[in-house]
Amino acid sequence: MSSIMKALQLAEEQAQLINLYQANSDVVYTGYIDSLAPDGVVVNTYDDAGLQDGAVFMRYQVIDEVETMSEDLDNMAFRIENADTEGLSTVPQLPVSFNAEHDELSQILANALTQKQVILLVVANNDNYLEGQVQGLAEQKFDFKSFDKFNYAHQKTQAIRYDSVNIIEFRGNELLLESAFVKTNYQHVDSVKATGAHAINDTLVNAQKNHDLIAIRSADGSDMFFVGFINTLNADSVVINLVDMTGQFGGYTLCRRSLIESVTIQSDYLQTMRGFIELNKQFELSVQPVLNDERLFDPTTDLFEAILRQAGNFNNLLHLTTENPMLPDMTGYPGAVTNGHFIFYNVDDDNQINRVGTLIELDSVVELSFGYMDAYLLEKRLKNTGNL
């Protein structure tokens, strides 16, 4: 018996929280084993906030490592406990049980067909994952109609062999929202975006006035884009109330106008997010109870200095990007701002704070993100362990 199989059996017996790593992908699945079937393992997975987030089926041959002890798992156990204590909530997920005596892949696909669920597939020899709905089942293969939340024009139906499917994600938060969204009367639209300082300014002013959902793409070549509503505008910067990938409040981003390459006001993805936002209102899930989505900012001040001072006073973590290409973006907390400079104490990959810090010029900062779930959790964990 392989060492992978032994590790899985032990983790199931001892109900251990595990990480499942793959050889050719950066995606890591964290959770508890639901069942070990002849054709693969089903794990009940958790998201970064520590909330139950559906399940994943993985064939044994794609598992590279089963991790049962690590700093990452300790951190995840803390997040799961915290989610429970603080009453964080997610889209209601009905449990499904499959017969682990038989191959589970076909059972999962059959269930997805009857429930009209959107599921995610990772197929052998295909670099891209596929999201969509099972349309019909045959002996060796099944029909699958893809749904692309970024572009509704990509809706082809294809036949996929059972034995080519390596991974299925199902019943997760985002997938449940998509399952509800695909029942609505959505139509493909062409993207409309503003570029150039004048058009961007007009678009931002209008979006703030009309409370429009927008997407801002950054000009630093990182392909970074922020989706959300405009909170505050001033001559050189903008504060956005972010919307995360599940349509919930995702904290704040302050960015300089010089960082903005374009502002999108119409796209299929924005339609999807508006749909998710509406669904979350029905589930009363617009904002998690530990986050504050009602902050106001004074547009007459230097917002960068004001937010850095506040974060420094309360030891609040924030994410920072500068225009200096030699400095990576960092998460940490700032020291006092003096003479247009401050020291930034970043948190490294091992959750240790760099006590020496980095001297940063205030005017070189182009983006600050704060008040989001990951910053809240990291801050709480650091305070719990006495590191902050």
Summarize the SSE layout with pairings.
Elements: H1 3-13, E1 18-22, E2 29-36, E3 41-46, E4 52-58, E5 63-67, H2 71-85, H3 105-115, E6 119-123, E7 130-137, E8 141-146, E9 157-161, E10 165-170, H4 173-181, E11 192-195, H5 197-210, E12 214-218, E13 225-233, E14 237-243, E15 249-256, E16 260-266, H6 268-283, H7 303-314, E17 318-322, E18 330-334, E19 341-346, E20 358-361, E21 365-370, H8 373-384
Antiparallel strand pairs: 1-2, 1-5, 2-3, 3-4, 4-10, 6-7, 6-10, 7-8, 8-9, 11-16, 12-13, 12-16, 13-14, 14-15, 15-21, 17-18, 17-21, 18-19, 19-20
Helix pairs in contact: 4-6
Structure keywords:
alpha+beta, eleven-stranded antiparallel sheet, 8 helices
Q: Describe the sheet with the most strands.
A: 11 strands, antiparallel
Order of helices and strands: HEEEEEHHEEEEEHEHEEEEEHHEEEEEH
How far the N terminus sits from the C terminus, by CA atoms, comes to 46 Å
Low-confidence stretches: none
Mean pLDDT: 94
Quaternary structure type: single chain
Count of helical stretches? 8
Structure summary, number of beta strands: 21
The radius of gyration is 23 Å
Percent of residues in beta strands: 25-35%
- Overall form: globular
SS class: alpha+beta
Strand order of the largest sheet: 11-16-12-13-14-15-21-17-18-19-20
Overall helicity: 25-40%
